[in-house]
Amino acid sequence: xxxxxxxxxxxxxxxxxxxxxxxxxxxxxxxxxxxxxxxxxxxxxxxxxxxxxxxxxxxxxxxxxxxxxxxxxxxxxxxxxxxxxxxxxxxxxxxxxxxxxxxxxxxxxxx
Length: 111
What we know:
Helix content: 55-70%
Oligomer: single chain
CATH architecture: Orthogonal Bundle
CATH class: Mainly Alpha
CATH superfamily: DnaJ domain
Number of helices: 5
CATH topology: Helix Hairpins
């Protein structure tokens, strides 16, 4: 699964700068409170949180990042649409197939 910078800071896209700073401080406070995890995993997570904050608190970097996310979303939508358009449409089937000889006999009787 791909996480965005917004995911790491537990924020929705479009959050205000004040909300970004508050979320960043709150998450760091959780780590200071003694979160017990594997040190390597914790270090990687903290680096990603710092990287997310660095991008989201800078207006220019955030705008470029949001444009990248939008482009990725449009590409994913186009791929999904292409996959759905390619799906095979199967002809309708009867619940129970009638053997050809019996079908011929019924057709002859109906005529």
